[in-house]
C-alpha cells in the first residue's frame, strides 16, 4: 500500500489481533528495528526519549553483539514485543542484521498478529518496495554472494513493510511534530491492544452496551436526550431510590421528588423547593446526566426528568419494569433488556459458584440441573451461585431436592420479585397466579378461551402483565420466567400451607398425591392440577380420585402414577385436559367436553375418543399425535371453533369423518405419518380457512379430492414421501400457496392430458412461495407446470444426500429467469451443475453450496439485499469470483479464495487494518466494501447457522438432518479518533477455512472525527469463541449525501 503524502498526522496500518491470539506475558511494549549509523544519534534518540516519557518500555540492543544472523535473544525480544517499529533509512538495507530482523518481524505479524509500524526517514517508500534508487543500490550490494532463497525473503519483507502507510519524514514540517505524533499513536495502539477487563464479571454487558450505544448518541450538544431501559425485576441492579410519599395531590408529590433530586445535585440534604420552578432555574443552563432507577409511576418522570428543566446536551436515562410509564412520559427511545441466553446464564452462575465462567470438573451436570430450576434471571443465578459456592459435589447433590423451597424463601429474591406482584390490582394478581400455576407456555388464544368466564377482559389483563415485564409473548405463546413461576406457586401454597385441598392450584407431586388419596377431604376449591413429567406418585390412586373435584377446570398430567380409571369421575367443568400416555381405549360415556377448549392426549392408547355425539362448541385445540392405536375420530359437527388438529403418527387411523368439513375455522391440520390413511373426505373442501395441511409420509394416500380447489387460504401443503399419490397438480388450488413440498412423490403426474387441463392449471396456479422437489427424478421438468412464473418466496432443487447428485448440468430453460417474485433459490449439492443462467432480479438469496462443478455465472445480481453462498465451489472461474465479490449487497457473499483480492485497496494480514481517507466525509455517511478471509483451523471449524441454536440430529426447515450449529456473526468495529462503534454485525451461514466473506459497512459522518479509520474484524459464535481471520481488506464505495 502506498504511503500517505498529504497529512501531517499519518497513522500506521496496523494488525491488532484479538488478545486471545497474542502472548500474555509481554516483555516489552516496543521493539525498534533500525540501522544505527543512520539514525541512532538523530531521530532514534528523540523517538526513544518521547516513548519513554509516556511510560512505554522499549527493547534496547546496546549490549548485544551484532553479527550477520540474529540470535535467540533477539528473536525472543521481537516475539515478546507488542509493537514493532521499523525505522527505514538510506542504509537500512546495507545490514543483513536489519534485513533478518525485518523478516522475523513480518513473520511475527503474520503468525502472532503483532502490530507493525513503519517510519520512512529520508527515503521513498516506493524505492523500498521495489528496491530501486539509492536504497536499491545499497540492497543490491548487500545481496552479493547471498543465496537466492535469502534474497527473496528480504525482498518480500521489504515489500510488505513498504506497503504499510507509515510516517514519512518528508511530509512533516518538523521532526519534533512527527515524533510527538509517533509517540501518541504508539500509546493509543497499546491501549487498544490491551485486553479489556471492564466487563470481566459483567457477563453479556458488552453486547448490551453495543446495542444501547446508538440510543445514547453521546457527544450530541444540540438537544436533551431521553432514553428508557425496560426490563423485569432481577434482570439488573434494581434499587428504589425514590419511594413514593403518601401525599394526596400530585403537586406535593412532585415537590417532594424535586427536593430529593436537588439534594443530590447540590449535596445539600436540607434543601427546600418552595415551588416547581426551582429545578429549572438551577439546571436549565447545565449539561446534566440524570439516571432514574426503577421508576414505576409517570409522575416521577414528570417531576425529575422534564427535558425543559435541563440544558442542551443533557442525557436522561430511566429504568423501569413498566412500559406504560415510558409511553406516558413520551419516551420513544427504548432499550429492552432481554434475559441472557443459556451460555451467558451459565457464565453468570459459574462466576458466583466457582469464581470462573465455566463449571469445575465433575460439576457440569449439577450446574445445568441448578440452571434448569433457576432459569435465566440474573438475580436468581447470582443468589444460587453464592449459595452453592464452596460446597462439595456431595453437598450439591444433597441440596438439589430442596432447591425450589430455598429459591422461593430466599429473602433477597422474594422481596424484589414480590414487589412487582404486590403492585398489581387484585384481578391482575389472580391472572398472574393462573399463568404461574398452569398456563405458562400456553397458546394465547387457548388461554383467552379458557379464562373468558373468569376474567372480564383476559387480553387486557395479559397486556398489563406484559407491560410490567412479568410475562412475554413469543410465537403466540405466553412465557413467564421460572423464578416468577415459582414465586406465584409459593404464593398459592402459602394461602393454605397445611391444607392443599383448599388451594386453587396444585403443582407439587406430594400435595397432589395427598389430596387425591384423601377420601374425606373436600376439594371444591381446586380448579387446576398441573402434574409435570419430572414428578411421580408412588402410591396408587383410586378410581374415584377425582370424584370430589367438582370445580376442576384445568388438568394436565404428564407425570406417572395417576390411575387412568379416575377419568370415570372427572369434572364436567373441564376447560383443559392434557394427559400423556393415557391408557384407556375410550373415554367413559359420562365424559362431558361441553366446556373443553384444549384436548391433548399424546401417546395415548385410545382407539376412539367416545361413543356417539358430544358438544364440542368450545374446542379450539386437539392434539392426539402418536396415538398409534387410534382408528377413528368422533363426530366433529359441533367443532366449529376448532382451529388446530394434530393427528401426526396416528398410524392406525383409516379415515377422517365427513364432519371434518364442519370445522370451518380449522387452520392447521397435521396428518403426517398417518400411514394407513388412503384418502381424504371430499368435505375437506368445506374447511375454507385451512392454512396448513401436512400429509408427509402418508404412504397409503393415493388421491386428493377435487374439492381441495376450494381451499383458497391454503399457504402450506406438504406431500413429502407420498409415493403412491397420483394426483394431477391441476386438481389442487395453488393460488395462495407459499410452501409446496413434493419431495419423494415419485408417482406424481407431471403430464397434462388435455388442453382443458392446461387451462385449469393456468387458472389455479399462482403465488407459490416455497417449492421443494428434492429427490425427484426430473424436478426441473415439473417446475413450469407447477408454478409458471409466479413463485413468491423460494425454490429448492438440492440433492438429498452427500453421495447422490442430480444429473442437471445447466438450468437451460429460460423460464427460471422469468419467475418475477422468486426470493430464495437453493441449489446446494447439485454436484454436476456447471453454469447458471440469468436469474430473477428479485432474488434475495442464492445458495449454491457444494456445487463442486460450477464454473460460470451467466447472470448478474441486482437486488441490494441479496445473500450469495458459494461455499466449496472451488471451480468458479475468475470472472464468476469477481462478480460475487463486487456485487453490491447489504447482506453478505462468500466464495473460495486463497488471498484478499487486489481490488481491495487496503489489505492486511490478520483481523484489523487502518484506512487513510483523503478527507473527512462531508455527507450523511461513508460506505465501504469489507472482506475477511477465514484461516485454516480444523479444530475450530465452527458452523454458524442463521436461525435457532441447533442440536445433533436436528431437522432443519428443508427437512435435512443437520449437525450441531451455532449462532454467529462477523463483527466489524470501527474506531475514529476516540469514537468507537459497531458499524456492522452480519449473520453468516457456515464458516469454513479458505473462504472469503464480503459485505458492506456504513459509517455515520458524525462518528468520524479524523481521516483515519481503524477497522477491527471478529468472527464470533454464540459461545463467544472466535474464528481466526487470516486476512482482511477494505475499499471505499461512496459517500451517502442524504
| Spatial shape | globular
CATH architecture of one domain: 3-Layer(aba) Sandwich
Radius of gyration: 35 Å
Q: Flag low-confidence runs.
A: 1-24, 238-242, 750-767, 777-781, 787-792, 800-806, 938-967
Overall SS class: alpha/beta
Q: Please tally the helical runs, counting DSSP H or I stretches of 4 or more residues.
A: 27
CATH top level assignment of one domain: Alpha Beta
Strand percentage, roughly? 15-25%
Largest sheet: 21 strands, mixed
User: What kind of oligomer do you see?
Assistant: single chain
Name of the CATH homologous superfamily of one domain: Toll/interleukin-1 receptor homology (TIR) domain
CATH-defined topology of one domain: Rossmann fold
Walkthrough of the structure:
One of its GO terms (cellular component) is membrane. Residues 26-190 form the TIR domain. Keywords: Hydrolase, Leucine-rich repeat, NAD, Plant defense, Repeat. The protein has a 21-stranded mixed sheet, sandwiched between helices. Strands 31, 35, 36, 38 and 39 form a 5-stranded antiparallel sheet that branches. A 4-stranded parallel sheet has the order 1-2-3-4, sandwiched between helices. A hairpin with a 4-residue loop joins strand 38 and strand 39. Helix 20 (426-439) crosses helix 23. It has 27 helices and 40 strands. The chain has 1042 residues and is α/β, with parallel strands linked by helices. 27% of the residues lie in helices and 18% in strands. The relative contact order is 0.05. Among the domains are: 28-191, Rossmann fold, CATH 3.40.50.10140; 224-240 and 250-336, 3-Layer(aba) Sandwich (Rossmann fold), CATH 3.40.50.300; 342-407; 415-492, Arc Repressor Mutant, subunit A; 750-896; 898-939 and 965-1037, Sandwich (Jelly Rolls), CATH 2.60.120.
Amino acid at each position: 500500500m502506498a504511503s500517505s503524502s498529504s497529512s501531517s498526522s499519518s497513522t500506521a496500518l496496523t494488525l491488532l489481533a484479538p488478545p486471545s491470539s497474542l502472548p500474555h506475558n509481554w516483555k516489552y511494549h516496543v521493539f525498534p528495528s533500525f540501522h544505527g549509523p543512520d539514525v541512532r544519534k538523530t531521530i532514534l534518540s528523540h523517538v526513544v526519549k518521547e516513548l519513554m516519557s509516556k511510560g512505554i518500555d522499549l527493547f534496547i540492543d546496546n549490549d548485544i553483539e551484532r553479527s550477520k544472523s540474529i540470535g535467540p535473544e533477539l528473536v525472543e525480544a521481537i516475539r515478546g514485543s507488542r509493537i514493532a517499529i521499523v525505522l527505514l533509512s538510506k542504509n537500512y538495507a546495507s545490514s543483513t542484521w536489519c534485513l533478518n530482523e525485518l523478516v522475523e518481524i513480518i513473520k511475527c505479524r503474520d503468525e502472532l498478529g503483532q502490530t507493525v509500524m513503519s517510519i520512512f526517514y529520508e527515503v521513498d517508500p516506493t524505492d523500498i518496495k521495489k528496491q530501486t534508487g539509492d536504497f536499491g543500490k545499497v540492497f543490491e550490494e548487500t545481496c552479493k554472494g547471498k543465496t537466492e532463497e535469502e534474497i527473496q525473503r528480504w525482498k518480500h519483507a521489504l515489500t510488505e513493510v513498504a506497503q504499510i502507510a507509515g510516517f514519512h519524514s518528508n511530509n512533516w514540517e518538523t521532526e519534533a511534530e512527527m515524533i510527538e505524533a509517533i509517540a501518541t499513536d504508539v500509546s493509543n495502539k497499546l491501549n487498544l491492544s490491551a485486553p479489556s477487563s471492564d466487563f470481566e464479571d459483567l457477563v453479556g454487558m458488552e453486547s448490551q452496551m453495543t446495542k444501547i450505544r446508538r440510543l445514547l448518541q453521546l457527544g450530541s450538544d444540540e438537544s436533551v436526550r431521553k432514553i428508557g431501559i425496560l426490563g423485569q425485576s432481577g434482570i439488573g441492579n434494581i434499587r428504589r431510590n425514590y419511594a413514593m410519599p403518601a401525599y394526596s395531590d400530585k403537586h406535593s408529590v412532585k415537590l417532594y421528588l424535586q427536593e430529593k433530586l436537588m439534594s443530590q445535585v447540590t449535596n445539600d440534604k436540607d434543601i427546600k423547593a418552595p415551588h416547581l420552578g426551582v429545578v429549572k432555574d438551577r439546571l436549565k443552563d447545565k449539561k446534566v446526566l440524570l439516571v432514574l432507577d426503577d421508576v414505576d409511576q409517570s409522575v416521577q418522570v414528570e417531576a425529575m426528568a422534564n427535558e425543559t428543566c435541563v440544558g442542551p446536551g443533557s442525557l436522561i436515562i430511566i429504568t423501569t419494569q413498566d412500559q406504560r410509564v415510558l409511553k406516558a412520559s413520551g419516551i420513544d427511545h427504548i432499550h429492552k433488556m432481554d434475559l441472557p441466553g443459556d451460555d451467558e446464564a451459565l457464565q453468570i452462575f459459574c462466576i458466583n459458584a466457582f469464581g470462573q465462567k465455566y463449571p469445575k470438573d465433575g460439576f457440569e451436570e449439577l450446574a445445568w440441573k441448578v440452571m434448569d430450576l433457576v432459569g435465566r434471571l440474573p438475580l436468581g443465578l447470582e443468589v444460587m451461585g453464592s449459595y452453592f459456592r464452596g460446597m462439595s459435589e456431595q453437598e450439591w447433590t444433597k441440596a438439589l431436592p430442596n432447591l425450589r423451597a430455598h429459591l422461593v424463601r430466599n429473602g433477597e429474591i422474594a422481596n424484589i420479585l414480590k414487589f412487582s406482584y404486590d403492585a398489581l390490582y387484585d384481578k391482575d394478581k389472580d391472572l398472574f397466579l393462573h399463568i404461574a400455576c398452569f398456563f405458562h407456555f400456553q397458546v394465547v388464544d387457548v388461554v383467552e378461551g379458557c379464562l373468558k368466564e373468569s376474567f372480564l377482559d383476559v387480553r387486557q389483563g395479559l397486556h398489563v402483565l406484559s407491560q410490567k415485564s412479568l410475562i412475554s409473548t413469543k410465537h403466540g405463546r405466553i412465557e413467564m420466567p421460572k423464578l416468577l413461576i415459582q414465586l406465584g406457586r409459593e404464593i398459592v401454597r402459602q394461602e393454605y400451607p397445611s391444607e392443599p385441598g383448599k388451594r386453587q392450584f396444585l403443582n407439587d407431586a406430594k400435595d397432589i398425591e395427598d389430596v387425591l388419596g384423601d377420601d374425606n377431604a373436600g376439594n371444591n376449591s381446586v380448579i387446576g392440577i398441573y402434574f409435570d413429567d419430572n414428578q411421580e406418585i408412588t402410591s396408587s390412586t383410586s378410581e374415584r380420585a377425582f370424584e370430589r373435584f367438582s370445580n376442576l377446570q384445568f388438568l394436565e398430567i404428564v407425570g406417572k402414577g395417576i390411575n387412568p380409571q379416575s377419568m370415570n369421575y372427572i369434572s364436567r367443568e373441564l376447560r383443559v385436559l392434557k394427559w400423556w400416555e393415557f391408557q384407556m381405549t375410550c373415554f367413559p360415556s359420562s365424559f362431558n367436553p361441553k366446556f373443553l377448549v384444549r384436548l391433548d392426549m399424546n401417546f395415548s392408547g385410545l382407539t376412539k375418543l367416545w361413543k356417539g355425539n358430544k358438544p364440542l362448541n368450545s374446542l379450539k385445540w386437539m392434539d392426539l399425535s402418536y396415538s398409534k392405536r387410534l382408528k377413528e375420530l368422533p363426530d366433529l359437527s359441533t367443532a366449529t371453533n376448532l382451529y388446530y388438529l394434530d393427528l401426526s403418527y396416528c398410524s392406525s387411523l383409516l379415515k377422517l369423518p365427513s364432519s371434518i368439513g364442519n370445522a370451518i375455522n380449522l387452520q392447521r391440520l397435521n396428518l403426517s405419518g398417518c400411514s394407513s390413511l388412503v384418502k381424504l373426505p371430499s368435505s375437506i373442501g368445506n374447511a375454507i380457512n385451512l392454512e396448513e395441511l401436512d400429509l408427509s409420509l402418508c404412504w397409503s394416500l393415493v388421491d386428493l379430492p377435487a374439492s381441495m380447489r376450494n381451499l383458497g387460504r391454503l399457504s402450506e401443503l406438504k406431500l413429502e414421501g407420498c409415493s403412491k399419490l397420483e394426483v394431477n397438480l391441476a386438481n389442487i388450488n395453488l393460488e395462495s400457496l407459499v410452501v409446496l413440498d413434493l419431495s419423494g412423490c415419485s408417482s406424481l403426474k407431471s403430464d397434462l392430458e388435455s388442453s382443458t387441463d392446461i387451462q385449469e392449471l393456468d387458472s389455479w396456479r399462482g403465488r407459490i412461495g416455497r417449492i421443494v422437489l428434492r429427490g425427484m427424478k426430473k424436478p426441473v421438468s415439473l417446475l413450469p407446470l407447477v408454478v409458471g412464473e409466479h413463485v413468491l418466496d423460494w425454490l429448492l432443487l438440492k440433492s438429498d444426500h452427500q453421495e447422490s447428485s442430480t444429473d442437471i448440468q445447466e438450468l437451460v430453460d429460460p423460464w427460471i429467469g422469468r419467475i418475477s417474485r422468486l426470493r430464495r433459490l437453493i441449489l446446494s449439492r447439485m454436484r454436476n451443475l456447471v453454469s447458471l443462467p440469468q436469474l430473477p432480479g428479485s432474488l434475495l438469496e442464492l445458495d449454491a453450496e457444494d456445487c463442486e462443478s460450477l464454473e460460470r455465472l451467466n447472470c448478474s445480481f441486482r437486488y441490494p439485499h441479496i445473500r450469495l453462498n458459494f461455499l466449496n465451489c472451488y471451480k468458479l472461474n475468475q470472472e464468476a469470483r469477481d462478480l460475487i465479490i463486487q456485487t453490491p449487497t447489504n447482506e453478505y457473499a462468500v466464495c473460495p479464495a486463497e488471498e484478499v483480492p487486489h481490488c481491495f485497496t487496503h489489505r492486511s494480514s490478520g483481523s484489523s487494518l487502518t484506512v487513510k481517507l483523503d478527507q473527512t466525509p462531508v455527507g450523511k455517511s461513508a460506505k465501504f466494501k469489507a472482506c475477511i478471509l477465514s484461516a485454516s483451523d480444523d479444530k475450530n471449524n465452527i458452523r454458524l447457522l442463521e436461525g435457532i441454536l441447533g442440536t445433533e440430529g436436528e431437522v432443519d426447515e428443508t427437512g435435512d438432518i443437520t449437525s450441531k450449529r451455532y449462532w454467529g456473526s462477523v463483527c466489524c468495529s470501527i474506531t475514529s479518533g476516540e469514537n468507537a462503534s459497531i458499524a456492522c454485525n452480519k449473520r453468516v451461514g457456515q464458516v469454513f477455512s479458505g473462504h472469503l466473506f464480503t459485505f458492506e459497512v456504513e459509517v455515520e459522518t458524525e462518528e468520524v472525527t479524523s481521516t483515519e479509520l481503524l477497522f477491527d474484524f471478529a468472527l464470533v459464535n454464540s459461545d463467544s469463541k472466535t474464528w481466526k481471520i487470516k486476512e482482511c481488506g477494505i475499499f471505499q464505495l461512496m459517500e451517502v449525501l442524504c
